Amino acid sequence: MSENTQGFNTRAVHAGQAFEPRTGAVVPPLHFSSTYAQDGIGNLRAGYEYGRGGNPTRDALQEQLAAVENGTHAYSFSSGLAAEDSLIRALAEPGDHIVLGNDAYGGTYRLISKVLGGWGIGNTPVDMSDHAALKAAIAANKTRLVWVETPSNPMMRITDIAAVAAIAHEAGALLVVDNTFASPALQRPLDLGADVVVHSTTKYIGGHSDVVGGAIVVKDPVLAEAIGFIQFAVGAVSGPMDAFLTTRGLKTLGVRMRTHSENAMAVASWLAQRPEVEAVHYPGLESHPEHELAKKQMSGFGGMVSVQFAGGEDAARIVAEATRVFTLAESLGGIESLMNYPSEMTHASVKGTELAVPVNLLRLSVGIEDIADLIADLEQAFAKL
Ligand SMILES: Cc1ncc(COP(=O)(O)O)c(C=O)c1O
Predict the structure, then answer these.
(1) Is the residue at 9 inside a domain?
(2) Tell me: the pLDDT tens digits for 135-192?
(3) What is the pTM of this model?
(4) Residue among 88, 203, 242, 365 to mutate when testing ligand 1 (max atoms within 8 A of CB)
(5) Sheet of 73-77, strand order
(6) CATH no. for residue 364?
(7) Is 143 in the pocket of ligand 1 (CB under 6 A)?
């Protein structure tokens, strides 16, 4: 069976992970060396010259990432935002323009508006479900990239990747999909028409809240060359230990996402019948406005749930500070359940902008603990209201 006909979990476990030929060690060794001996000037062994340009542990992760996203090339970075920065600098230049979802992750918007804006790259946030607004924003500008996050952080909106890819391509723009929330276990944007997938591997791919990283995956050799050059020339690469931890996490992504999805569905259903709750945002609920679209383009609904409280900001704050199994912390996608108050935590940087998050909203990253314990924890926290 050739590699690309193998199932998702087989690729996650084996791609880039061949045993070490000298000893037979089943887990490939971790290479810390920053430089490589040359047999003569420029006469390299297996192409390795210097650690910024190439490292076998990073290469193993990159091969694994490309395989699970059905791409041909992947690039691993020191954080999700480092990946995004390198991606935009590789594919856009001053004078270009980005159309992004108006509910993109706050840090992405901060990078695009406050850092790359000063470098001469314009941006327009739009509602990605409003295709007329998307087309108008592209037509009015020199748009190079359309940037979609689906499900979005933290509003859990779903964007139709195939439809937006067609709109972007008609205008000569590229479609980038931030696949952090779904992970490649549940959604593969390159198969749906996207040109580039970007990840915060800090989240579900790493999966254990013990490593920060980012990745870019493509299937076009021209894009691959441009991104590979920036990875090497700018150097925001993942270190060997980070690459190793990310590889180890990615091997179990499929089984973890199944339990995250089951637990999140149970938590969302429990929240939906509580009188203290004004709205639950989870694409697995039939009440979610894009539930049918999520069913079509995802193979599961993931572990992220957002909830808005009828009692406003005060109620959200009380629950956020009252849980015991859910830990109050930023980030998401680890095996342990986390509780986040986005308007003051992960999304504080977009306060006062059109990307601002409602103050009565909590974002739950539902972990893989026993569901009875998670519900009991929410019950005791709700009792404080
Ligand atoms: C959807 C999404 N994209 C990108 C990022 C940025 O990733 P990192 O924190 O690894 O730089 C985050 C971080 O929270 C995120 O949630």
Answers:
(1) no
(2) 999 999 999 999 999 999 999 999 999 999 999 999 999 999 999 999 999 999 999 9
(3) 0.97
(4) 203
(5) 73-77, 214-218, 196-200, 174-178, 143-149, 97-101, 122-126
(6) 3.90.1150.10
(7) no
